[in-house]
Amino acid sequence: MVSAYKEHRLDEKTRIVSIMKRDENKALYCIYFCPGQFCAISPAEVEMHSDHFGFPFVTTDILCKRPPPTCDRGTHVTVSTHEDFRHNRKQLFLPIQNQEKKETFPYNFTVCVSNLFGGYNNVLQFVQTMELYKLLGVQRVTIYNTSCGPDLERVLLHYRDEGTLEVVQWPIDKFLIPSKGWNYAEHKGDIHYYGQLTTLNDCIYRNMYRTKYLLLNDIDEIIMPYQHANLLELMDYLQEDNPDVGVFVIENHIFPKTQFEDSGRFKRHQWRNISGVNILEHVYREPAREWVFNPTKLLIDPRKVEQTSVHSVLKASGQELRVDPDVCRIVHVRTPLQAELTKDMLHVDKKLWEFEKQLVPKVDKALRKSGLLKS
Fold it and tell me: Of 78, 187, 188, 201, which one has the greatest count of Cβ atoms within 10 A?
């Protein structure tokens, strides 16, 4: 069990976001707890997600019926293989979140970053991405952290104290053998990519009534409007003609970190001792290949999504729209996918440079506040 949320869209059932072994088929029971007493036991409904990439363990929703009127103030819930109270007194009970359905939200845009692991310490790209997202209108970021490097830890603390960042500790490696990749045949392990699918789904429910829109992407990806000044203007434009759409699919475009722009204008000496990639130095974009699957990421209305995978939703209400990349695309600075291409075969894309005057001083300020850059 990972977390529990009241599901207002399904007759106020409780949804427990969980991880289960795919060949597990034992009967399960939901147990609600009211202050001072066990109050209700009922059979659980188990929904294993359809995407698991071949790994033995899979993200699973356990749905519990709405508790009876005698337990209408149930605050916690657990799952057991026993339906007898006497066998469940030492069970771990999860607090039920999202008790109140809301129509207005404190944030317009929140980003979900599924996993940090392997001592991740790409500080400069992380700070540049955080500050760029703030310029685009993102007000909150939720990040799941298994492990990160010491410098990035200081950066996380800065953004947490600032109020921009929520860090959810994710010690999946203490319970399962997580894979470092997505392909079971190649990477092995118990569960896909440090439980990425589980964290993405948990992040949707965690932010269900906190934010109008939710961006589901990796920390080295930026969902970038190309015809609008910020995300709010982009979504006003997209929703005006598509009011029933709740899932916006955004194409991923690779900016190889092996190709540098020639002028050196962003090779700043202030950043020379900061670990990580300087995304402003990489303005060459790989051409799209129509015959190759182009991974996408998602910008969603979380109240219209029940289950998601990495590149597509699995269960949702409303419609879905694939956004024209000329309107919005993902800027993804990483190792190349078409390494054979020379610089003259790539597209020049200096979109990030439009933010230079605001972005550079904000990055410097964040690095100073994190104790990584001298005043």
Answer: 201
Residue 96, exposed/middle/buried by CB under 10 A (0-12, 13-18, 19+)? buried
Say how far apart CA 49 and CA 296 lie, in whole Å: 19
pLDDT of residue 29: 92
Secondary structure of the chain as H, E, C letters: CCEEEEECCCCCEEEEEEEEECCCCCCCEEEEEECCEEEEEEECEEEECCCCCCCCEEEEEEEECCCCHHHCCCCEEEEECCCCHHHCCCCCCEEEECCCCCCCCCEEEEEEEEEECCCECCHHHHHHHHHHHHHHCCCEEEEEECCECHHHHHHHHHHHHHCCEEEEECCHHHCCCECCCCCHHHHCCCEHHHHHHHHHHHHHHHCCCCEEEEEECCCCEEEEECCCCCHHHHHHHHHHHCCCEEEEEEEEEEEECCCCCCCCCCCCHHHCCCCCCCHHHCCEECCCCCCCCCCEEEEECHHHEEEECCCCEEEECCEEEECCCCCEEEEEEECCCCCCCCHHHCEECCHHHHHHHHHHHHHHHHHHHCCCCCC
Question: Which residue positions in the chain have pLDDT lower than 50?
Answer: none
* Sign of CA pseudo-dihedral 293, 296, 302, 304: negative
**What is the predicted pLDDT for the residue at 88?**
62
- Residues 36, 76 contacting (CB under 8 angstroms): no
The pLDDT score that the predictor gives to residue 46 is: 96
What does the pLDDT read at residue 187?
A: 86
d(CA 333, CA 349): 12
Tokens of 309: 């995978």
